[in-house]
Amino acid sequence: MPKPPPPAAKAAAITPDKPAASSKPAKPALTAKQLFGTVKTAAPLEARAIGWYAKGCLAGGEPIAVNGPGWQVMRLSRNRNWGHPNLVALIERLARETTAAGEWPGLLVGDMSQPRGGPMISGHASHQVGLDADIWLTPMPDRKLTRREREDMSAVSMLRNAGEVDPKVWGEGQVKLIKRAASYPEVERILVHPALKKALCEAAGTDRGWLNKVRPYFGHYYHFHVRIGCPKGSSNCRSQAPVPSGDGCGTELADWLKRVAPKPKPPPTAAKPPVKPAKPAPPKPEITLADLPPDCGAVLTAGGHQPPTKPAAVVDRSKNAAPEKDKTISTAAPAPAKTVPSPTKASTN
Ligand SMILES: [Zn+2]
């Protein structure tokens, strides 16, 4: 993704039409996440990813089976094991091929999309159009997990510290798994923590072409995030800018490692500047149905679904609801590509 737009432009993109100052404020309708977060079934329409990864919806979504050859779906209570059929096929293929090659014991599949995509009540900013999936970096156990275990089992952090992986849990298996995922042409990006990217850069040897798609980003040390491109036939799907060329192991990675490094403590003798009470930032406006592409209205009501008129409680039964949160991904739509982003200010996710 190109450089995020300045905050003002971002806000404008989310609330395109401010009501005139004189008009009486209308009673707020339900937010898009309240509408899409409560739908239990797919929109019975032709499969289409609609809109942008972080502002869109999904028609004709398909669930990945909760158990399959080489995978198990986690956190079943969230009902987020839905995606565009291309994404489902891709995960099935990755599970099949990585296990057949003896690289990895099987996938623990984390969040994909909701049945009709759209924003989620908790967690992710992206995952809205059925083209994103989180895969745990914890190997699949050699048995069928119970539903309860799939809620309670914690993903394992791959980090020893902000800049290094933990060799006790990270190894060749994760490298091979991510490399294979990156090898599929429909995969456009894989997001991992900068320390994981560093480990991959070090492990890659001379075969480095695949590293290009593996982008460093905040979070993503319990799981990696696979993003596929807009499928054929999804005419209203908004493509992401291609990844910059090169393996991304140089200045871009160094810059990311600086970003995630713990801030150095000021020397104890330094005079402390008076602490000004910080003014709380105004809450980010919630995405409404009107902010989504127009087709998402039809997706929401397809098959006779009656959206709720009052906010409904959404239950997430997992013990620690979201160890694999990645809410900072792609909150903004891509800014128009006017300038070539500086390679040191990489923000490509
Ligand atoms: Zn994700």
How would you describe this protein?
By secondary structure, the protein is an alpha+beta fold. It has a domain at 42-262: Muramoyl-pentapeptide Carboxypeptidase, domain 2. The chain is 21% helix and 13% strand. It is built from eight helices and 13 strands. The chain has helices spanning 7-14, 32-36, 85-100, 147-152, 172-183, 194-203, 251-260, 295-301, and strands at residues 48-52, 55-59, 62-63, 67-68, 71-73, 82-83, 107-109, 132-136, 159-161, 164-165, 187-192, 214-216, 223-228. Strands 8-13-11-12 form a four-stranded mixed sheet. A three-stranded mixed sheet has the order 4-5-7, with helices on one face. Strand 1 and strand 2 (55-59) form a beta hairpin. Helix 6 packs antiparallel against helix 7 (251-260). The longest helix is centred in the N-terminal third of the chain and has 16 residues, at 85-100. Bound molecules: zinc ion (ZN). Zinc ion binds at residues 124, 127, 132, 134, 225, 326.
The largest beta-sheet arranges its strands as 8-13-11-12
For the record, the CATH architecture of the domain at 42-262 stands as: 2-Layer Sandwich
Count of distinct strands:
13
Could you spell the SSE succession in H and E letters?
Answer: HHEEEEEEHEEHEEHEHEEHH
> Tell me about the biggest sheet?
4 strands, mixed
Strand content: 5-15%
Based on secondary structure, the structural category is alpha+beta
Which fold name fills CATH's third level, the topology of the domain at 42-262?
Answer: Muramoyl-pentapeptide Carboxypeptidase, domain 2
Number of helices: 8
CATH class of the domain at 42-262: Alpha Beta
Q: What percent of residues adopt helix (DSSP H or I)?
A: 10-25%
Radius of gyration: 21 Å
Distance between the termini: 5 Å
Task: Give start-end ranges of low-pLDDT stretches.
Answer: 1-22, 322-349
The overall pLDDT, averaged over residues, is 86
- Rough outline: globular
Bound molecules: zinc ion
